[in-house]
Each structure stands twice: as structure tokens, then as C-alpha cells.
């Protein structure tokens, strides 16, 4: 017997499901309908399932970390999307150099989920 994991799905909460779907699509994720009316969000090798379910305490403590080539480019991209004003409480923080070689951009989605883009 071999104990193996073939895949893993993370379920991300959405306070306003339609708003969150538009937000992730604007960021560049491809959304496809999944089981139970949820949506799979895929970009590159990253995949998570956006769910039409919300608990504030869970959402405000939920984090997704993405390894990226350019955290500054993600900042500019997210800033342009969020400054349009259609994504409620979504926000982006200035990129932060945590070491000489590591830059991090933090984005908070409309539900309070923290997206961490690490270069």
C-alpha cells in the first residue's frame, strides 16, 4: 500500500460570491463551475475552489500564498484592478522587501482573504 495524495483542493470563502468571482477573473484566474455551484479558480499551476459560503472569522484568517516571478508586477496589476472601485473592501499593500532576494505583495480580496505573492 502506498499513501499518496494525487491532488488537493482548498475551499476559499466568499462573502459576495458574484463579486469574488469577478475579482478573481479580473486578477487573471480562469473560473470553471465545480461541484455544488462552487467555482474552480486556476492560474498557471495554482488552483483553488471559490465557495459560496462565508464565515467572517474564517475569511479574515484565510491566506493563499503564490510563488511568483515579479511581486512588483502583481502589485501594479492588483492596484489597477482595485482602484477601479468595483471590488468593495479589496485592497493591496505596497510590495515589501523582506530579504535582499525576497519581495512580498499582500492583496486582500473582497471577503477578507489574504493573497500573498512572493518573489
Q: What would your notes on this structure say?
A:
- The protein is globular, with a radius of gyration of 15 Å.
- The mean pLDDT is 95.
- The strands form 2 sheets. Strands 5, 6, 7, 8 and 9 form a 5-stranded mixed sheet that branches. It has a 4-stranded mixed sheet with strand order 1-4-3-2, covered by helices on one side.
- The protein is 24% helix and 32% strand.
- A hairpin with a 5-residue loop joins β8 and β9 (114-118).
- By secondary structure, it is an alpha+beta fold.
- The termini are far apart.
- It contains 3 helices and 9 strands, in the order βαβββαβαββββ.
- The longest helix is centred in the middle third of the chain and has 13 residues, at 71-83.
- It has helices at residues 17-27, 56-59, 71-83; strands at 11-13, 30-33, 39-43, 46-51, 63-67, 91-92, 96-97, 103-108, 114-118.
- The chain has a single domain, classed as 2,3-Dihydroxybiphenyl 1,2-Dioxygenase, domain 1 (Roll), CATH 3.10.180.10.
Main CATH class: Alpha Beta
Could you name the CATH topology?
Answer: 2,3-Dihydroxybiphenyl 1,2-Dioxygenase, domain 1
In helices, the fraction of residues equals 10-25%
The counted number of beta strands is 9
Radius of gyration over all CA atoms, rounded? 15 Å
Largest sheet: 5 strands, mixed
- What would the principal axes of the Cα set say about the shape? globular
Strand content: 25-35%
What is the domain tally? 1
Mean pLDDT, as a whole number?
95
SS-derived structural category: alpha+beta
List the helices and strands in order: EHEEEHEHEEEE
What's the architecture in CATH terms? Roll
Distance between the termini: 38 Å
Amino acid at each position: 500500500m502506498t499513501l499518496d495524495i494525487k491532488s488537493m483542493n482548498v475551499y476559499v470563502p466568499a462573502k459576495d460570491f458574484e463579486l469574488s468571482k469577478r475579482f478573481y477573473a479580473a486578477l487573471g484566474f480562469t473560473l470553471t463551475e465545480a461541484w455544488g455551484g462552487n467555482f474552480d479558480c486556476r492560474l498557471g499551476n495554482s488552483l483553488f475552489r471559490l465557495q459560496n459560503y462565508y464565515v467572517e472569522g474564517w475569511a479574515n484568517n484565510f491566506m493563499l500564498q503564490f510563488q511568483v516571478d515579479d511581486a512588483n508586477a502583481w502589485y501594479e496589476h492588483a492596484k489597477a484592478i482595485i482602484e477601479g472601485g468595483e471590488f468593495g473592501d479589496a485592497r493591496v499593500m505596497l510590495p515589501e522587501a523582506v530579504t535582499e532576494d525576497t519581495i512580498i505583495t499582500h492583496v486582500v480580496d473582497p471577503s477578507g482573504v489574504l493573497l500573498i505573492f512572493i518573489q
